Structure to design on (719 residues):
C-alpha cells in the first residue's frame, strides 16, 4: 500500500513536471480565476479589465486565460491545477475563498507563481495583494453623512470578514464626523454577487428609511433598486457603475488592478518575481474614486476631494484617534492611527454603530 | 401536420435510447451555439468530452471525475428511491450541508486529538445529520400530510443559515485571524478523508458512492422493500392492496436519501473541500436531481449520468480556459442536456404520426 502510494505520487509529480516543462517556452502565460461572471459590472469586471490591460501592455509576449464563476473550494483547486498544467507561469486567484486551494496547488507547482487577492496565507511562490478600500469608504462616508436627510444610511454587507467590517467602520466614522445624528443599518447578504438578493437587501433598507445605500456586493442591482425608489443615493462598488450616474450613483470606489497586474507579469518575465504582500490604496492608484456627480452640492464635493487628497498624500489616515470600539473600550488615542495588523484582522465595530457582527 | 399519439405500452427501447439521443442532440445544438459564438464547435465539443478522459493531462482529470461525480451519484441514488415511489425530496442540498456540519463538528470537537476512531465517528455523525434533516419533512408528511417538496426545499435555506452561523461562530478557526471558516480538515490527519491511493481521486466518498449503487441495485431488484417502492410509484392503489404501508415508505425513502446526502456532505467537507465555509455548498443536492432523472432512476444509469455531469463540469472549465468560452455558454450546454432528455422522454409514451390533425 505504502509502496503503491509512493509509486503513484512519483508518477504524478513526474507527469506534472514534464507537463509544466513542455509548455514553458515562448509566451508568458497568465491565468485568472474569477469568482463571478466577467459581466458582473463590479469586482470580477475590474479584475478582467486588469487582465485586458496586461494583454494590451505586452501584446504578443503574453497569453492570458481565465475561468469565470468558479466556486470556492475543490472546483477552484481543479481550475488552478488545470491552468498550471496547461503551462501558466503566473496565476491570479481573485477571491478570498480561493486561499487554501491556492496554497494547495502552489505546493504542487513550485515553478508557477500564484497571486491571491485579499488573503493572508503566503508561500515561496504565493503572493497576496489587496487594496485599501477603506480609504475610499471614508470619502463615501463623508458624502453619505452630508447627503442623508433621514439620517439613516443603509449598508449591504457581503460577509462579516475584516475587509468588509473595515469598510463599514471607515464609512461610519466619516459619516458621523459630518453628521452626529447619522445611523447605519447593516444587512448581511452572504454573497459577493447575487443580483436578486442584493436588490432585496436594498429594498428592505429603503423601506426602513435609508436614503443613502452603500454596498459591499458586486452587482448593480442595488443601484437599480435605488433608481426605482427615486430619492436614494448610491455609490458604485468595485467598478464605476457610471450607467447609474449622475443619480442615484453619485460617486464610486473603483478597483484598479491594471498597474499591479502589469507589474507582476513583468516581474515574472524578468525573473524578478518574489513572494510579497501588497496593500495599496488611493495614493498608489489601486483604489480610484469615481467622478463625484453634480447631484452632490459643490461644497460637499470639494470637501470630499480634499479628503481624498489628504489620504492620497498620506497626511491623513482614515482610522485616526480618538476612537472607541462599539463596547466603549478604547481603540485609538488622540492622534494615533491604526496599524496594518489591527486593520487586517478588524473584527469589531467602532462606537456608535448599532447591531452585532454576525457570529 | 404531425400529431402525437399515445403508445399503448411505454416504449422500452426509447426509454433506454433517450439519454443517448439527448447527449447527441446536445452535442449538435451545443456545437451550433459554440459556432455562433465564433468558436470551433468540433474543438469545443472535443475539449469538453474528450480532453478530461483521454487528453494530455487525463492523469489529473480522471481522478477529478471521481471527486466531482461521487457526491452527485451518492445523493442521486438516495433521491431515486423516493422518486421511484413518488416521494419528492427536493432538499438534498440542505441534508448535504447538515451532514457536512455534523461530520466536521464531530471531528473538530476532538481537535487536535489523534485517534483512528475519529473518522468513523464523523461518518456516523454526517449520516445522522443528513438523516435528521430529511426526517423533518418525512415526519411532517406522515403526521400532518404536509407537502414534502416544499418542506424539504425550504429547509435548504434553513440549513444555509446554519452553515453561515457555524462558519462565523462555533466552528470558526480560532487561528483564522477573524475570517469565517473552520479549521482545514485536510491538515488534521485523524479527520482527513484523504485519497486512499495518492493520485487516483479515490476517497471514502467515492467508495461509498459505488457501494450505494450496488446496494440500491440489489434493493430494487431483489428486496421486498424495493418491490414496494416500485409498485407504489407505478400503481399506488395496487400497492395499498398488496399491503405496502405508505407511511413507512415515506420515512424510509426520505430517511435514506437524507442519510446518503449527509454522507456526501461529510466526505466532501473532510476531503476535497476541507473546510466548513459559508459557501461550502455548490449545488450538488440540486444537480443530483438532474443526475437521478438523467440516469432513469436506475442505479447503473445514475452512475453513468453522474460521470457524464462531472465530465461536462470539468470539460466545461477546460473549454473556458483553453477556448475562452463564457461560463454562461457552458451552463446553457448543460441545461440543453436536461431539456433534450425531457423532450426525448416524451417519445417513451408517445409516438409521432404524420398526417392531418383531427378536427375536434
Amino acid at each position: 500500500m505504502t509502496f503503491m502510494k509512493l509509486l503513484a505520487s512519483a508518477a504524478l509529480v513526474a507527469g506534472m513536471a514534464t507537463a509544466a516543462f513542455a509548455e514553458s517556452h515562448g509566451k508568458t502565460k497568465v491565468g485568472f480565476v474569477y469568482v463571478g461572471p466577467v459581466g458582473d459590472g463590479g469586482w470580477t469586471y475590474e479584475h478582467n479589465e486588469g487582465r485586458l490591460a496586461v494583454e494590451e501592455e505586452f501584446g504578443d509576449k503574453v497569453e492570458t486565460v481565465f475561468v469565470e464563476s468558479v466556486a470556492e473550494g475543490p472546483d477552484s483547486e481543479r481550475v488552478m491545477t488545470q491552468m498550471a498544467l496547461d503551462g501558466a507561469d503566473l496565476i491570479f486567484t481573485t477571491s478570498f475563498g480561493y486561499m487554501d486551494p491556492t496554497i494547495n496547488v502552489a505546493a504542487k507547482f513550485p515553478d508557477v507563481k500564484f497571486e491571491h487577492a485579499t488573503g493572508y496565507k503566503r508561500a515561496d511562490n504565493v503572493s497576496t495583494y489587496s487594496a485599501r478600500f477603506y480609504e475610499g469608504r471614508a470619502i463615501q462616508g463623508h458624502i453619505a453623512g452630508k447627503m442623508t436627510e433621514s439620517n439613516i444610511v443603509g449598508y449591504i454587507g457581503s460577509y462579516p470578514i475584516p475587509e468588509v467590517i473595515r469598510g463599514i467602520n471607515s464609512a461610519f466614522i466619516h459619516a458621523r464626523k459630518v453628521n452626529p445624528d447619522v445611523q447605519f443599518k447593516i444587512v448581511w447578504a452572504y454573497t459577493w454577487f447575487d443580483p436578486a438578493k442584493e436588490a432585496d437587501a436594498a429594498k428592505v433598507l429603503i423601506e426602513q428609511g435609508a436614503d443613502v445605500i452603500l454596498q459591499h456586493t458586486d452587482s448593480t442591482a442595488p443601484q437599480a433598486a435605488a433608481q426605482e425608489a427615486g430619492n436614494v443615493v448610491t455609490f458604485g462598488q468595485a467598478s464605476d457603475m457610471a450607467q447609474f450616474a449622475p443619480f442615484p450613483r453619485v460617486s464610486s470606489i473603483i478597483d484598479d488592478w491594471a498597474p499591479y497586474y502589469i507589474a507582476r507579469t513583468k516581474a515574472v518575465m524578468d525573473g524578478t518575481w518574489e513572494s510579497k504582500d501588497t496593500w495599496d490604496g488611493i495614493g498608489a492608484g489601486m483604489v480610484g474614486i469615481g467622478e463625484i456627480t453634480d447631484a452632490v452640492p459643490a461644497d460637499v464635493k470639494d470637501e470630499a476631494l480634499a479628503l481624498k487628497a489628504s489620504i492620497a498624500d498620506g497626511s491623513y489616515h482614515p482610522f485616526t484617534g480618538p476612537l472607541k470600539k462599539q463596547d466603549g473600550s478604547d481603540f485609538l488615542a488622540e492622534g494615533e492611527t491604526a496599524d496594518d495588523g489591527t486593520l487586517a484582522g478588524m473584527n469589531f465595530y467602532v462606537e456608535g454603530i448599532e447591531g452585532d457582527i454576525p457570529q | 401536420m404531425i400529431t402525437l399519439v399515445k403508445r399503448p405500452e411505454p416504449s422500452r427501447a426509447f426509454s433506454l435510447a433517450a439519454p443517448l439521443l439527448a447527449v447527441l442532440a446536445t452535442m449538435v445544438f451545443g456545437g451550433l451555439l459554440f459556432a455562433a459564438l465564433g468558436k470551433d464547435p468540433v474543438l469545443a465539443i472535443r475539449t469538453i468530452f474528450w480532453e478530461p478522459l483521454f487528453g494530455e493531462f487525463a492523469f489529473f482529470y480522471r481522478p477529478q471525475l471521481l471527486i466531482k461525480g461521487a457526491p452527485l451519484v451518492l445523493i442521486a441514488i438516495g433521491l431515486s428511491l423516493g422518486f421511484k415511489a413518488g416521494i419528492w425530496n427536493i432538499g438534498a442540498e440542505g441534508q448535504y450541508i447538515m451532514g457536512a456540519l455534523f461530520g466536521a463538528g464531530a471531528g473538530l470537537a476532538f481537535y487536535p486529538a489523534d485517534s483512528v476512531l475519529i473518522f468513523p465517528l464523523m461518518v456516523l455523525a454526517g449520516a445522522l445529520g443528513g438523516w435528521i434533516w430529511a426526517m423533518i419533512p418525512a415526519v411532517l408528511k406522515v403526521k400532518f400530510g404536509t407537502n414534502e417538496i416544499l418542506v424539504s426545499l425550504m429547509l435548504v435555506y434553513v440549513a444555509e443559515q446554519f452553515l453561515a452561523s457555524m462558519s462565523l461562530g462555533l466552528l470558526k478557526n480560532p487561528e483564522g485571524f477573524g475570517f469565517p471558516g473552520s479549521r482545514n480538515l485536510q491538515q488534521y490527519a485523524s479527520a482527513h478523508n484523504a485519497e486512499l491511493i495518492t493520485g487516483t481521486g479515490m476517497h471514502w466518498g467515492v467508495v461509498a458512492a459505488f457501494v450505494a449503487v450496488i446496494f440500491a441495485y440489489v434493493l430494487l431488484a431483489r428486496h421486498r422493500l424495493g418491490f414496494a417502492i416500485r409498485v407504489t410509484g407505478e400503481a399506488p392503489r395496487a400497492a395499498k392492496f398488496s399491503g405496502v404501508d405508505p407511511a413507512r415508505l415515506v420515512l424510509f425513502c426520505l430517511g435514506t436519501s437524507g442519510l446518503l446526502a449527509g454522507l456526501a456532505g461529510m466526505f466532501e467537507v473532510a476531503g476535497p473541500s476541507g473546510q466548513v465555509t459559508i459557501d461550502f455548498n455548490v449545488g450538488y443536492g440540486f444537480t443530483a436531481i438532474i443526475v437521478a432523472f438523467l440516469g432513469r432512476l436506475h442505479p447503473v444509469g445514475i452512475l453513468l449520468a453522474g460521470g457524464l455531469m462531472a465530465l461536462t463540469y470539468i470539460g466545461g472549465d477546460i473549454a473556458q480556459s483553453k477556448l475562452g468560452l463564457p461560463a454562461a455558454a457552458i451552463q446553457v450546454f448543460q441545461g440543453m442536456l436536461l431539456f433534450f432528455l425531457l423532450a426525448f422522454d416524451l417519445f417513451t409514451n408517445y409516438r409521432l404520426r404524420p398526417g392531418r390533425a383531427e378536427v375536434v
